[in-house]
Here is the input.
Amino acid sequence: MLLINHALKELMDIEVVSENILQVHLNGLLQINDKIALKEITRQLSLENVVGDKVFGSFAENLSFLLEALKKGDRTSSCPVIFILDEFDLFAHHKNQTLLYNLFDISQSAQTPVAVIGLTCRLDILELLEKRVKSRFSHRQIHLMNSFGFPQYVKIFKEQLLLPEEFSDKHFAEKWNENVQCLSEDRSVREVLQRHFNISKNLRSLHTLLMLALTRVTVSHPFLTAADLMEANQLCSMDSKANIVHGLSVLEICLIIAMKHLNDIYEEEPFNFQMVYNEFQKFVQRKAHSVYNFEKPVVMKAFEHLQQLELIKPLERTSANSQREYQLMKLLLDNTQIMNALQKYPNCPTDVRQWATSSLSWL
Amino acid sequence: MAPYHTRQKIRQTYSWIGRPLLDRKLHHRTYTEICVKIEGCSTPVHIQVGQFVLIEGDDDENPYVAKLIELFEDDFELHSKKRARVQWFVRFSEVPAHKQRLLGRKPDAQEIFWYDYPACDSNISAETIIGPVQVVALAPDEVIPVDLKNEKIFFVKLSWNEKKFRPLSPELFAELEKLQESSPKCQKSVEAMTKNIESPAWTTTEQVVKRIESSHSASKSRQTPTHPVVPTARKRLELGSLTFPHLSCLLGLGFPRTPHTKISQPTSQASLDSSGRTKRKVNFSETTSQTKRSHLYRSEMSSPALKTPEKTGKVQPFCAKDVKKASPKCCMILRTRVPALKTTQINEERTLTPVKGGQRPSVPSVVLKPENIKKREAKEPETQNQATATSHRIRRRSSLLTLNRIRQQLRVLENNKSDQEEEEFLPTAEVSDSSSEEEEASTPALSRRNTRCISRNLRPFLKPSIQTPSKTPKKMAKSRTPRCATPQIRSRNLTTPEPASMLEEARLRLHVSAVPESLPCREQEFQDIYSFVESKLFDRTGGCMYISGVPGTGKTATVHEVIRCLQQAAQANDVPPFQYIEVNGMKLTEPHQVYVQILQKLTGQKATANHAAKLLAKRFCASASPQETTVLLVDELDLLWTHKQDVMYNLFDWPTHKEAQLVVLTIANTMDLPERIMMNRVSSRLGLTRMSFQPYTHSQLQQILGSRLKHLKAFEDDAIQLVARKVAALSGDARRCLDICRRATEICEFSHQKPDSPGLVTVAHLMEAIDEMFSSSYITAIKNSSVLEQGFLRAILAEFHRSGLEEATLQQIYSQHVALCMMEGLPYPTMSETMAVCSRLGSCRLLLVEPSRNDLLLRVRLNVSQDDVLYALKEE
Here is the structure.
């Protein structure tokens, strides 16, 4: 989209062109069906059946009206129209792909000159098109890939942070840019960037990272430091579920450990509350020193809390008459996640930790 | 009527004078004189038939000018029973602004034009008449007399028929001249009048004279309440002049016909009408109303004119009245006939021998003075030129209608001296008319067709006065529906550049839209379809044909070519004329809309789908009247499939009716569509006339490219062969082939930019284009993905390998991923990051993933083959 906008802007800068081009912007998320899309096209072309922002006539009328309008022109006389369809794949889901067919058909016949540009992230978009629609499609595809390497990535990072020449405070801009230059050569910063680059070449994620770092810049802390970036990186790569686990009570942690053991024993088979409770009971009776033997309703409450946090998920939807104790559940945490979270868990009782690490739960 | 009396705050009362003549057929009582009493004025104003009157318009200062043709009382009218029929005159300001320049000179302020437009609604309420006015007819080259300029008199020199200005026809001119002499000043006696009328005449005019005589005498004596001749003639004329109120009235439909309701009618019709027609109408009304408003100064000049007669309130002698009564009637008959005759004259003079053309204009009219004849003769060539210059089609058509009517009339009336010349030139007129039929431009054709339908079937929803800019005063005021203008994309100010280089020229020719002169490689199919349609045309029967073939094999193009050839043949009279309609399943929102489209293209009417279906069924199954064959092309037939299949059923059922004369050509992609989706009763009606377009072979594609690039050395021969073979192997889609070539020219142009030698398109360029189009983007996408994404793909492969399934949950893949990372000593990612990676790959469809609410349990599949992934990952 950025590229398109840029290209169009450049095109529009040529005055002759800008006077002679009509643009229609559509978005698959906004124009969810052909009816709305047609209305939008008529509105944007400001054809005659538009009064204010409203378009009159039924769907069928609009279609024939628009087709007639577009049919009328020919190459020499009428103004070319550029259709830009964002989220193009969603247009392919419209009924019969009527809009696409007609747009392509117009572009392929001697009617009003029309250029249709579709933007999508899907690589398999051609497979979505119906065969007759596909046949009318010109098969001109441009793939935008993040084909750059790490050095370029660092360059982009610098360009994003550097202040422009025309910045009002010249002195500050100079210092800031110097600092950015230093940062880009700093080893720890490069490490952070490398890590980020490995995860995603997406520039948007780089933007998020930089935004997080830049929010720490204040009057008293005027320059970005490597530490800021590292912290931002940590924030970015934080595991959300581990965060949730940190906030759980010891009882809930115990329940999760019990579930983990159950998973190990039964090889990912689903479990129910009763099984978890039994496991928990075994632990409390045999090994636990610090964990109080809670009553069943209390444990149940904790179990439900876990469910609300979506750390566990019922296999079927809860029905009113089924007994909650025996409803089958699945744990939505991976073993590694649990172990990582436990290590960071503040004031974790040692016996609980031991229990978690032991492969055989009853020992 | 209250709102329209804004100008004169005085109350006016209208009353009939004299005994009514009862017209039984029309349920009218006709009168010859109306008396207008103005409150506060002792002397009433008498207005008689034949006098010129001012009629209230939406512009109070500039009332309409018209000639009173008939006064009658109509009980079907709700609001005002007193009706009048008028012949309109238009002021220059009422002529649409863009047509004003056709006059070619500056009009005089007092100049008006005879409104020669039969479609105009001439039926008005008598109570809109303001008062009498004087109109003087002048020869086109006569200067408006200076001495009369001060008086409030209008001058007629030319007639205006919505297309162009023309001199008044001699008959008309004479009659106007006569009127001017007789009616306002009553100088001439009855004897003088009759003498005048009985002056020697020739052929048609002679008959006319006789009629004038007879009607004259009849009305003079006023003995028979029902006139034996005039009413019938009048009725016919009414039909001819296409005044719908009367038709409806005749049939007892009884629409409210007051000016009030007329305002609402056009607006409501807007939805029913074909868009084209409404547009035109409103365009007209807009322009006229605007111009009217703008011309305020003229109104001041004219308004005293209408006031003077009122004030003076001339009471005319009784005998004079009689004369007037008589003469207008003749005039009316004459008038309506005259324009028609005249137009045919002009047309025929073109087609007939020069001798006849010379004869025609010398037909002297009854009261024409010698000097006028000369003038008219001088005029004649000029009008001929005009006739040839502008489109004569429409005029020809309307003239034929009126001509026929006149002929009937003449026969019925009395004279056995049937006009030989008329007889002679009629056939030619008919021929030219029929050939002009199918090539007619949409708007005029529509209106005409409509009228035909109405007179035949009486379509109930087509209410009176759809016809064009009716001049009934109230109409102009409103009817500004929003969607009336012609849909059109703004036109460009920049002219398209001419193709500069050979490559550009080639690209232009290779565009799919560039229609080649002939369709190579489809000669056989072309011949088959052509002979099929042609035979049906000759047999005047119906039939179906099913054409199938994969996309891009030239199905639609071939049919279009066939139709084009047939239309040419029809013009050359080799085949019977036919009407061609095309619908495309893809261009409909819903299968049933096909009825609406067909009906609209057939007759220009708009209706709901159900209603349209009924009308079409009636047209194709019931109507016995002979009509021309309709050729219907249904593209993308498979989209007309409905659960009940009623649309397809109807489409294939209509041709089986004998009266329908419908040829249906259907196009779809699949060969076995009739068997696959159609019910037995539908597919049996479709019949066995099938044709399938095979995908093009490489040699055919080569031929197609060759024909498009004739005399244009832009491609290497090998290159063309390569692309033809490539495409033939893949799909045989000609569109694809052309696309590749176009792309190749672009690549060629680009690569040659620097050395500045735009050479031939070589095999290399084509290969590049083909690669660009057909190569899968997956591998490049994988190659360009980030390390983590690649790792994730690797983990998926490992997991698939481990489980032996083609599907894995995210949790399984994650643990694999972690294991892999540990093995390589890399920091393994967190779950959230992995989720993000997964959804990213899913969004570009490298992976097929379930919605992410399943979290860890969401199942992942590869959308690419495992080998491709391995290949892409190994590259590094």
Notes: Chain B has 33 helices and 21 strands.
